[in-house]
Structure formats: C-alpha cells, structure tokens
Amino acid sequence: MNFSKNDKISNNQLRAVIIAALLGNLAISAPLKIISISGSAAYLSVLLGGVAAAVLFYLAIKLMGASFTKSYEDTAQEVLGRWFSVILFLVVFIHIVLFSGFQLSAACTMVQNSMERGVNSVAAALILSAAAVYMAFKGSECSSRMSEIASVIMVVFILFIFALSLPSFDVETVKFTPHEGVNIINGSMFAAGSLCASEYVFILSAKANDTKKSARAVFWAFIVITLILSLGTMLSVNAFGVKEAQRKIWPVIEMMNYTEFPGSLVERQEVLMSGFYIISSYILTGVSVYIASSLLKKIFKSSKNAVFVILSAAAVFAVSLFGNGIYEKFNFIYWLYKYNVIIFFVMMIVPLAAYIRRNKKCGN
Amino acid sequence: MKNTNFGDDMNLYSELYENKQKIKDVFTGADDIVMREFDNFGVKCLIVFADNVVSRTVIENPVLTNIMVLGEAQSNMEAVATKLVSVGETKLVKTFEEVFDAVLIGDTVIIMEGDKRALVISSKGWPSRGIPQAQTEVVVQGPKDAFMEIGSFNTVLIRRRIRDTSLKVRRMKCGRRSKTDIAVMYLKDVAKDELVEEVIRQIKSIDVDAILDSGYMEQFLEKKHNSPFPQLQMTERPDKAASAIYEGRVAIVVDNSPFVILVPSTVNIFFQASEDYYDRWEIMSFLRLLRYFAVIAATCLPGIYIALTVYRPDLIPTALALKIASSRAYVPFPTIAEVLIMETAFELLREAGVRLPSPASSALGIVGGIVIGSAAVDAGIVGPVVVIIAALSGICSFAIPNPAFVSAIRLVKYFVIFMSAFLGLFGFYISVFLVLTHLASLESYGIPYLYPFCGGSINGYTDFKDSIIRAPLRFMTKRPIFARKGQKRRMSNNKGGSRK
Amino acid sequence: MRKLMLLLCFIPFMLCGCGGNEIEGRNFVSVMGFDVDENGEYNVSVGFVTPGGENMYTAESKNIDSSSAYVTDKLKSSGKRQMYFGHLKSVIINTNILKNEDRLNEILLSASSNNDISMETIILSSDYKASDIVGVIKEAGDGLYIWDFYRNNRNGIFATYKLTLGDAIKMCDNYGSVVIPSISYDDEGINIEGGVMCSQYRYVGKLNQSAMRGFCLISELAKGSVETISYNGVNIPFLISKNTVNKNFYEENGVLCADLNISIKAKSQMHSGTNLSDMQSIVFAIEEEIYNEASAALAAMHGADCDAAGLCYSLMKDNYGLYSKYKADDMFKNMRINVNVDVETV
Q1: Complex ipTM above 0.90?
Q2: Which of these CATH numbers, 3.20.20.70, 3.90.1150.10, 3.40.50.150, 3.30.300.210, describes C210-346?
Q3: Of B423, C127, C163, C321, whose CA is between 20 and 30 Å from A307?
Q4: pTM here?
Q5: Cα–Cα distance list, A300 to A80, A86, A90, B79, B479 (Å)
Q6: Which among C16, C21, C52 has CB closest to B329?
Q7: A111-149 pLDDT tens trace
Q8: Rounded Cα–Cα distance for residues B158 and A283 (Å)
C-alpha cells in the first residue's frame, strides 16, 4: 500500500532533501568566509566550487548506481567486511555529528542574535534537537516529504527576495579585478569543500527508488544550491560592500535588511527570512540524526531505533555546545569545510570496491 | 463477526412449539417483538416481527392475507415462499441466529409446524425523514440533496449517480450488539484491489458493542488516531461521494448516519468543495487560493501577532506599531492573556451557537458580537487590534469546507499561540515546523497526507491541477492518485468532447 | 521514553526568556543625537514616542559619559520604560564629533552591530548641538519628522539626498569617503541642506547647498528632484527624470584624467508660446547650471581630498591596470576631472 516501501525515497525527494538540508545552512555559514577569501568575486568562487562539487557527486553517484543493489550500509558491510565497515561507519558517524552539530550551533547563534534575543542559543539548539528527534523517529519518508515542502518554500521565497533586491543592484560592485584571480580559485576550493556533505548524498541516494537516475537528481540539487548561494553572495556584496560583508556574520541573510518590499505588512525582511534558514537547519539535524542512528544500528547490530535516535540527537546537541564556530577565533565549521573533501574520498571506497567486485564477477 | 448474546447458532426445531418457546425466551422483556400463531388451512404457523420497524402493509397484504385467506394449504416453507408470499425478497434460513438477526433489522419471519426452516420476508419499514438538504456542506450551485440516516437509501443516492455495472456494494455488519449495516462501495475496475481489501479487513476486525455513527467508524479506521487531523473524509453530499468513487476511492456507508466515509483522504481533499467543479474554473481557483490562505491565517495569525508585538515590534511598520502600542496602553492584561480571552470568547460563542436553534443562535451572534467586539474594547479589557485578529482567524476557519479539518486547525492554533508566547518568532517557526512534520508523517491508506505537495511526482504532478488551483475540467484528463494502474485516464484525448 | 521526551521538550522553555516586553511598555526612540563634551565623552540625546492616548513625543538628553558609541544597551535600561531602538529613524551626529578621528566609524559600527537598528536609518550631521535638534523636532511633529521629511518631499529634495546607515557604511568601506547631509533649524523649522565631507572617517570639509546638488548629480542621486532656473526673469522649474553619469578614465601627459559625462533628462513646463530658440537657450541654461553645480562639488571635494563619488573605486573596477599605475593616497587629488553635461528636455 505504501508509496515507497522499505523506507525508500523518490529521486525528487532526494533532490529536495539535499536542497533543503544544505541550502540554508550553507547560506548561514559559508559566504562570510568565501567573501573574505575572494573579495567581491566571491560569487564566482561559489559558482566554480559548486559546479565542481556537482560534477564530482554526479560521477560518484553514477558509479554507485552501477554497482549498488542494496543500501550504502549493507553494501559497505558486504564489500568491506564487518570490521572495516564498522570503522568506516564510525568515521562517517563522527563526521556527520560534527557537521550537523556545528551547523546547528551556527543556526542557533543566528536565532539568538538575529531572530529572537530572548531565546538562548543553547535552548534553541535543544529545542531543534528535540524536534529533530521527532522527525527522525518518523523515518526518512517523513523528512523527505518535509524537505519537499521546505525546499520549494525556501527557493521560492529566497528568489522572490532576490528579485526584489535586484533593482538596487550595482554591477560595478561585483566586477572582479585581475589581481583577485588566485583568491577566486582559493575561494572556490573552500566552496567546493563546504558543499561536500558526502554522507547525506551517498547514504540517501542509495535509498532512492531508482538509483540509476539519482545521479541526475543530486547534480541538479547542487546546481540549484550553487546558483542561489552564488546569487545571494553577489547581492550581499552589492548591498554591503566587501568590507562590511566580512563584518556581517551571515551576509546573505542580513542582505535582506536592504530589500524594500513595497506595501509589506512586515519590515525587516531578514528576520522573517531567517525562519527559512532555521527550517533548513531543522531538516539537516533531523536527517543527520536519522542517518547517524541508522549507522549506530549497523555498528551495534541492533534494531533499537528509539535508543539510537536519542543517542545521535544527544551527540549532535553536545557538539553544538562546543562552539558557535562562525565568528569565534577557532572556526570549527570552516575547519570542517576545509577538510570535507577527505570524507568524500573515504566514502568513495565503498562504491569503488563494489564496482571492482562486480566487474570481477562479470569477468568470471 | 461473533454473535454474542445467546450463542444461538443452533438449528431450528421441527416442532413449532419448541421454536416458539426458544424465541420467547430470547426476547423476554422485549415487548415490541410481536409473535402470532395463525393457521394456513390447517397447518400451524408462527409469525415474528419487530413492531414499528416493519412495514405493516407488507405483512398484512402480501403475507398474511395470502397465507390465511387467498391461498391453499402448503406442506413446507419453500412452497409457502414460492406460491403464497408475493414479496420481492425472501429467503429460507435454518438457524436461530439468522432468525433473530432478521427480526432485529426489520424483516418478518414465518415458521411452520414440521419444518426446520424459517422464511425471512423483507419487510423493513423504518420511520424516516425524507431526503434532507445538505447542512454542513452547503453549495450555491449544484444538487441540494444530502444523505440521511438510512444506509440503504444512502446507497441508492450514490447508485443513482453511478449507473455502471462495475459499481460494487459490499454489505456487512459491524458492532456486536448494534449489528449496524455497513456498505462498502467502489468501482471494481478503478479502485485499487488492495485498498478495497484493506478497508474490508479493517471493518471486519472492528470488535465493539455498537457503531452508532460513521464518526465511530472513522475513529476505528484511522491509522494515527491520536492526531487531531482527520485522515478520512466524511461527507453528507451524495454527489461528493459519487465523484470520489469515480476517482477510485472507496465509500463506506454506515447505517444510522447521514455521513458517508470516503477513503483515502489527503489534506488537499479537505479544501475541495463540490461546487468547485460546478462553477467556472477561474473563480473557483481563486477561492481555492483563498481557502489555503484562510487555513494559514486561521492557524498562524494570533501566534504571529503575539510574536511580533511582544518580541519583535521592529518588524511592524512604525505607524502600525505605534497604533498597536497606544491601543494597548490601557489594557491591563499581557498580550497572551488578551489573545486567549478573545479566542476563548469566540470559541464559546461558536459552541453555544451550534447548540442553539438557528433563530436564537443568530441573536446570540449579534449579542456576542456587540459585547465582545465593542464593549470589551470600551471597557479596556482587550485592545481593538486583538478583536480584529481573533475575528479574522475565526472567519478564516469558516472558509474551509470540511468541519473536521477546521476542528484540527482550531486546536493547532492554540499550540502556535503558546509556542509564540513562550519563544517569540522562533517559537512560532518551530510550532509551524512541528505541525508540518506531523502532517508529513501522516498517511491515509498509503497515500501521503500532504499529497500532492509531497510525492506529487508519483502521478506525474498531474494532481496539482486540482490543488491550489482548480484547472479547467478539460485539462483534468487523468484520475487522481487513488485510481489503480491502467485506469488513470478519465477523459478521452479530445478533452471530453468536441470543441466546435 | 515518552516522559523523557516530554521533559526534554519542556526544559528549553525553562531556559529561555518567557514573555518579552509588552509593546506598550516601550519608548519608541525615533531620533538619536550624538554630541561630545569637553572631556571627549559622548552626550547622547534621544527623542522618543511614549505610547498612550496621543503618542506623546518626548526629547530627552542623557549624558551617558561614555567614551564608546555603544550606548544603546545603557540607554535601554536607563528609565522605567525600556528604550526601544527598533523604530529608530534617524541619527544626528554633531560635526565636532566628526572632527575626532574614527568617531564616525565607531558610531556607524555600533549602530550596524545592534540588531534592533535598521540599516535604513537616516544619518545626518549638524553644526548645531544634536540635543537641540532632537528637541526642535518636538515642535515639528510627532518625532518622525525627519523620516516624514524624506518620505513626503521626495520630489522636492534637491539640496540633499538620503544617506542611510547601510549606504554610509558601504561608501566608507568602498570609497573611503562619505558626504553626510546636514540638518539645521531656524524659526521656521528644520532644514536639511548642504553636507559634511568625511574622508577616512574624519571631517574634511563642507559642501554648500549648490555643491551638494552637484554631488547628487555626479553620484546619480538627482533623479526625481526638481530645480528652478531663471530665464529672462522667469523662474522655470524642471524635473530631473533621469540622471546617469558615464565615467571615462585615461592618462594624458602622465596625469590621470577622468571625464564625467552627466546626462540628464529634464521635464519642464514651458509656455505654449515658447519657440525653438528659446527652448535651446533654456536647455543651455540648464546645462550651465548643472555644470556649475557639479564643478563646485568637484572643486570642494578635490580641495578636501574626499572621493565620496567613488571615482577611484570605479577606476579600479573599470581599468585595474591604470588604477594600479596611479595607485597612491592622493590619487583622487591628483586626478584631473572634466565635466560634460548633456541635457535632454522632454
């Protein structure tokens, strides 16, 4: 009777999850650093890095589609053996908990600083984690359905705000000068790294109904994220100027402060819009808790869903207590962005091994 | 279904005396059960029926007159049935259980001396009102008839609209003691087999004393019964039920209830009114949009008002913020209390209005409106802005065509209000996310509750044509998601007819 | 497990601020003035609206005795009612403050870092004491006067332009200079005309009314404004419906040169009897007027080395080679600028 049996999601939902989970979080945390690396041409860095990441994931998921018949976790256990797969799962678990924990912390700092001063960021993180537990309990179908709605709402509203801020756009601000060339490349490396949230892509695309077509879905998801992020970065540089944009903690969101929406009953669009970024954080945390708990279940060979979901959520929340890495001296998120590519290659071991194994079998 | 009362699955005796004694024992104290012995030209017979539940004319003319006066002596029940009783529907039964069931539902039973079988003659003639007008789903344009309390009439109202041989009516009984008639109606070649089987399996698995209304049935069939949101659709309109059956959905007609249950149901369906399809698509699309806006406003308006005025007045335009501030200057309560006072007053008015007869309820509306709208503001108990907010959210909730969905919205509104009061704008967002997550987790017979906004791709996004907007009928060539594979097309390629 | 979940859900409620301030319990600050006393400490005055039957406007001068411009938190809790900066419309800075190095930067940063304060807040400078101006606004209306002034006189403002907090920060960051419109008052009320030039967050000079117009014209800010010229003893008003500036940079004899081609579309109401030669003469007169104003502005800016029109920035973006060749602190000062005006009447 079910639409998607065995906890599977459609390719559209896969695309929606990636957009909804990453778009808002990246818009909160990435542009500041990219602007400080690349200056006024930060949008180019985002564009280059984003397209590179999209192509990389497209190839990886193609390879996966050609060699996978089961979920990522099951295939890993099959091709790597019990202990190697446990080590891999542990590494991925730690990464996912760190990644979503720091993102959650950044989003909750935004809640405290920009949206609602009365709400402590720790309390906000706790509330979001508790809500994420609720979502993770409901399984991947629920989060993917939620993501479908969230991604459409987010993209539509963000584009609407961007369209409103276009009339005050000054082309001169975003012209890049030749001496920025190296910075653009550096920035694009960072942008590509920040987009490499590999565990979501690999584990979720293995859950897709039609794995043959999921590469395309993933590719378009990254292209959409890249385009919106790039446009947002460009507009925020235009609105603030490079120096002020570097002083803003979340330039893409605060940029909306400049947007006049004639006849609106609500001023200060950025505060209202930050809600759409919070939904992204909520979905990221929910999906992370779901994936992390499924990894824990595999590690401990157990099916106690509730225990592992709460454990994973607690881990994410605990990490979020460590820091609001965005503007403190040691930026956890930036550090993670920088080395995100490593986890991509670590996770690629499984599809590669599965592919080689399959080819060998065919050869025999 | 288990028969509970007497465990009387035993066969009838051949001695009339023994049969009479047994029936008498069972119906002791039930004075409305009539038992009369009579003579079929020398053969002793017994007639049993429930008084006032049967049609007297059926018993007297084609049954008793024929057997006692006009006919001739017969040796067995079968001969009586074929030669004497001139009633359309008769059947021979062998057990006491069948005899009791027949008597209780309004049929007449005749037992003959020396025969171990009884003749059940269909003679139902319950007191009933005529076909009523729709009360809760009123339309301006379109049929006015509505379902009534008699299940078999309701099936007739649906069958009148579907003259197709593949319309199937599966009858069964539910309720240990009430033995309520249930009819499951569907189009055999359109509805999914697994859906029909699942519905029938669920109904058969219900084990309860009585099913008094389709509301009972609804709550037993819902998968997530703790959710405030209705996961099945109840309608009092035969045209709505018929159109649902045409789409491949299943209608469950429950006797004694003027509401028919339609499954599966999604959120989108609760925004559809029958009228949407009878009028022009432009205005109906506009009304659809309005209803979606209304549900958002009904849920969020009081919450967002609290979040903005108490926590983020900078989001409100300066002139409005100053107006709100000055209007609240002499109100002694905090904003949350002010909003709750108004909302509660509104709910009370609504509840009282439902219970009162209609002339009195309109008077109540006027008095309540004046007292709460004007006097409360003058007395300085609430500010005028809150009156507007409460009234707007109340009016918006009336714009939604389904009462069950409105009830859910009314509850959710308070959740949003409290979250916004505690956590400001953040609380408002979180409450909305949680409600959305809850909705996303619901399913109705395998269809996501938020379909087509979630999973719309499964049916090629065609169901968006009948969601936020209502596309022209000519464009809605395909049946919605509910229909089985291979039966998706409901209109020919030339869009339903020639366009000259 | 369910109980644990419920507990987890309720803990945050205890942790965070339940119930904010009611809207009527706040004073809505609409104007904020910065003065500086002999000791170099800020004297902040606020004009605010107290919600009530008639929304009373009150001007209050507070000696914060703070060497820092981050005063809003101190002000917030300085009285019984909370001072609320969410609807702050304008900030008036006394010119003396601008003469101290980096004070402007501090004020701008303190305002922009406060989440309550909108980036649309208007920044003004004044030779008068800011506390006096805040007080005078009381006579002029309900405290939203400056805001209303810009809103209602959109077509009438030519002597000045609207500098918002966001724009001020952007100009300071990109161009290193900014022109802050000046506010003054007399018996008839408040005037916003002329401006103060700041370079590297420091006062460097003043623009008079005519030069301020010129600045608006070369910064493409004059669209929608009305000016009057006198021709044959008749005052002819014209509306500038389009104001674009084309900047062209080149080097000539080792000197960096810039051509500013100002093109204007002007709508004016001529008499029906106006003949062609008259029309041409009027156009020439307008061109001359605009040329004079732009030249006056450039002369003043040149003299003060204030590149508030962002010429160096444009050069960097347009021709980075030329820019790096002449890159120096006094680049703007050494730039030779020619102004060409092209007026088209509609």
Answers
A1: yes
A2: 3.30.300.210
A3: B423
A4: 0.87
A5: 17, 9, 11, 75, 47
A6: C52
A7: 888 888 778 888 899 999 999 999 998 888 888 999 999
A8: 45
